[in-house]
Amino acid sequence: QVQLVESGGGLVQAGGSLRLSCAASGINFRTAAMSWYRQFPGSQRDLVATITAGSTTNYAPSVGGRFTIFRANTVNTVYLQMNSLKPEDTAVYFCKLNSGISGRAYWGQGTQVTVSS
Question: What is the pLDDT of residues 64-79, one digit of tens each?
């Protein structure tokens, strides 16, 4: 059974930092592409950052230069380091795994990030 468990969300002041973690189990993590999405109230999920199995990264323009996605295959975990946070970064953040073997996608349960002004 594939599980993605996110952690690290919370309340932070504008200009602060948070690091989100997403730990995967039950799947070959090394061959998977990992992504972080965020969802604002009443909106669809938007892509924030992606890292391939080969560690190539890509970012949404709104977070480029502030957020960093990286992975630690030894512990089956992907991270999102978020710096210089803004109130408009307030959202529920989800991690997504795209299996490099089956092509299936799996989602975490989401973690709330709230940035106060």
Answer: 899 999 999 999 999 9
Residue 87's SS3 state is helix
What is the Cα–Cα distance from 68 to 50, expressed in whole angstroms? 10
The rounded distance, in Å, linking the Cα atoms of 60 and 58 is: 7
Phi and psi dihedrals of 96, rounded to 5? -135, 135
What share of the chain in percent tops pLDDT 70? 100
∠ CA 53-54-57, rounded to 5°: 90
Task: Say how far apart CA 6 and CA 95 lie, in whole Å.
Answer: 7
